[in-house]
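Annotated sample (chain length 388).
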Amino acid sequence: MKNSNKWMKSLVVTTALSFGLMSGGTFAQAAGMDKEKGEDVKPEQAVHSQKTHDKEAHVKPQAPEQSKSEDNQQNAEKQREEAKGQAEEKANEKADSIKPEVKPNVEKKADQPEKAENRRVNSQASEHASETAVQHANTNSAILSPAPTEGSDEQTEEPGEESEVVTDSNESDEAEYTYGSDSASTANPEGQDFYIGKLGYGSKVQFDTTTGGGIYFSSDRAEEATYLYGYWFLSGMQTAPDGISPIEWGENQAALALETYEAMKSVYGTKVKPVIFIDVEPAYTGMNSYDYANNQLIYSAFIDYLLKNGEGITPGTYSSPWSWEVSMGEYSPSTPGAYWVAYYPMDMPTDLTTDNSEWITFPGTDEQAQIWQYYGGQDDYNVSWMLP
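Output written by the structure step:
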């Protein structure tokens, strides 16, 4: 019986040892799987697993077997630390592989095609040229035209190439001042670029085709000038034939002025410019003061006749602020681009540019006159910033 008890005790001990070995092997395999996953294996989980197996077997392991289990636990912890280290290395490697390399030059070049898609690439020299052209550009020139929108046919240029500045002219648009005189005055001391002679008034012609001059038309000034114009002293109803209407009176004067202009052109040829100035001012042979209704009809009829029958001849207007107010009231003239204004300062002006405040806009308009008569009397001197 004792032998039987010993045998049973030995069997129980052997079984417990075998079960301990099996449980240790299973734990090591689980640690290996966790290592592959890169997860942490906590030591308390391993100890809890071992105690559970011991409790189920209802057998207290021998001291040697406990020492072996502790060794297995230490090995598991060591494997866990190695797995943790490898997991961190893999995580760092993965982060390094995701982080993009910094290559400023490559990224900058990659942006260039998109930036150059809808704009010109100009050299430094061409940019300065463009700025200069813009400063002197006319309001309607190509330099100030709207920039091309997306989808336009404008071609871009390769970097380093100079773009050509497209303008109507390679020269500056700054005003080139010209000087002259009118009527029977002496020559302008500033120059004799142009001359404006009197053709007549009302129903009277004052240009003599045989002499090329007249009482208020200087043949000497006309010969010296580079450009030649004529003006007609517009008369009011006080000199009109009996029974004629203001419109008919305006048309009759325009027809006579046009005929005299052609006579002047036959004498002086191509230097004659295709403009006839209408002189509007109060006088016995001029417009009747404050007869606004008749004067306005005469003036507008004169212009209409020239536009219909002048074959390219442009009507212009000459007057001063006071003369226009007395003759035409608040009526607005209708000869844009061909205004000749008389406005005399106290002394001979030294500044004959459009910056001078005395070079005024023409009465009834917001347009600065093209020609300024800055001195009168026997010295009818004129300056122009743009000849019509």
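Annotation: The first strand starts at residue 178 and ends at 182.
Annotation: The two ends are 147 Å apart (CA to CA).
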